[in-house]
Amino acid sequence: MRTISARAHAKVNLHLGVGDLREDGYHDLTTVFQSLSLSDTVTLEIGPDRDLVVEGSIVSGLSATGLDAASVPTDDSNLAWRAVDKLVEYYRTHHGLAESRSVHIQIHKGIPTAGGMAGGSADAAAALVAAHAFLSETHPAVPMSVLVDIAAELGSDVPFTLRGGTMLGRGRGELLTPLLSRGTYHWVLVFFREGLSTPRVFAELDTLREQGTSLGWSMETDDLAKALLSGEARQVAAHLHNDLEAPVRQLRRDVDRMREAGLEAGALRAVVSGSGPTVAFLCESELHARDVLDDLLADGAYSGTVAHGPAKGAHLLT
Ligand code: C5P
């Protein structure tokens, strides 16, 4: 059996400023993404010649292994499945794709599910890259801009996980501008057994704001951008910020305890990753990060890992 594999990386939001709720149900964001070494791998297992699909989904099934694999949807609600379907539709409409062999999607998870690290989005981005490699064997390649447009239809974080690096995100997070960043940043990531639903966290922020809790809109990222140019972890640490942290702490009281423990263990700064509950601790070096992680996981109550960034965008594995 022939396979095509692609890898996509997790993200942490160095800054996440959340504006008002829009009419389409999304919030305007000003965010700075950094991709991390933590990754998922998506493999397309290509079906036999006799299994030619002329309409509908070419995906025959989906299976998952690795971290939190039991909570990964294995039907067409999975973003990776939808990513393949969307690209096939594009090829049918624009490049006359008439028939295709079926594919089985195999996902190996290294990124926690519902952890605020764009795990589902990374799977979609990797699936797009793998499906593009498959379809462009027999039909023209499509420009990156087309893949990014399809990615944005799949979810707000999918364009970033496709492109990777360090980027400013606006709109609902899908309008991206690359940012210059020097050096490598070392993180400790602490995972929680139970994830959080992204819509629920945004809704909790709206509720807190309606109740008059003084929660502002932090749309200023110039100081963070300057800190990223310095390559100094301490300077970047001073500008980490997440407007979703208040609702996450409201929904998950144990996040506060974990933050405190990490700071006591010597981390430079803690920030909730995206819509949480993963807590990311920025450290001075890889060695420093390993020390902090050992301290935090000593009692066996949590799991976690060290990671570094920025990492690259979704890419084929050869
Ligand atoms: O785009 P995505 O499907 O990942 O978004 C999931 C949910 O998160 C949305 O339905 C919305 O409730 C919330 N969201 C938001 N504003 C954003 C991004 C996501 O309110 N900018």
Automatic annotation (TrEMBL):
User: What's the name of the protein?
Assistant: 4-diphosphocytidyl-2-C-methyl-D-erythritol kinase
Recorded GO MF terms: 4-(cytidine 5'-diphospho)-2-C-methyl-D-erythritol kinase activity; ATP binding
Q: Which InterPro entries match?
A: GHMP_kinase_C_dom, GHMP_kinase_C_sf, GHMP_kinase_N_dom, IspE, Ribosomal_Su5_D2-typ_SF, Ribsml_uS5_D2-typ_fold_subgr
**SUPFAM superfamilies associated with the record:** GHMP Kinase, C-terminal domain, Ribosomal protein S5 domain 2-like
Active site residues according to the UniProt entry: K11, D157
Occurrences of domain GHMP kinase N-terminal (ranges): 78-165
- Protein task: Catalyzes the phosphorylation of the position 2 hydroxy group of 4-diphosphocytidyl-2C-methyl-D-erythritol.
Q: Which GO terms describe its biological process?
A: isopentenyl diphosphate biosynthetic process, methylerythritol 4-phosphate pathway; terpenoid biosynthetic process
Substrates-to-products reaction catalysed: 4-CDP-2-C-methyl-D-erythritol + ATP = 4-CDP-2-C-methyl-D-erythritol 2-phosphate + ADP + H(+)
Span of domain GHMP kinase C-terminal: 225-296
Gene name, per UniProt, is ispE
Query: Does the record carry Kinase as a key word?
Result: yes
Keywords, A to Z? ATP-binding, Isoprene biosynthesis, Kinase, Nucleotide-binding, Transferase
The pathway entry for this protein reads as: Isoprenoid biosynthesis; isopentenyl diphosphate biosynthesis via DXP pathway; isopentenyl diphosphate from 1-deoxy-D-xylulose 5-phosphate: step 3/6
User: Per the similarity annotation, which family is this?
Assistant: Belongs to the GHMP kinase family. IspE subfamily.
The EC number on file is 2.7.1.148
Q: Name one Pfam family in it.
A: GHMP_kinases_N
Q: Which domain of life is it from?
A: Bacteria
* Residues noted as binding ATP in the record, renumbered to the chain: P112, T113, A114, G115, G116, M117, A118, G119, G120, S121, A122
Q: Key word Transferase present in the record?
A: yes
Note the Gene3D superfamilies from the entry. 3.30.230.10, GHMP kinase, C-terminal domain
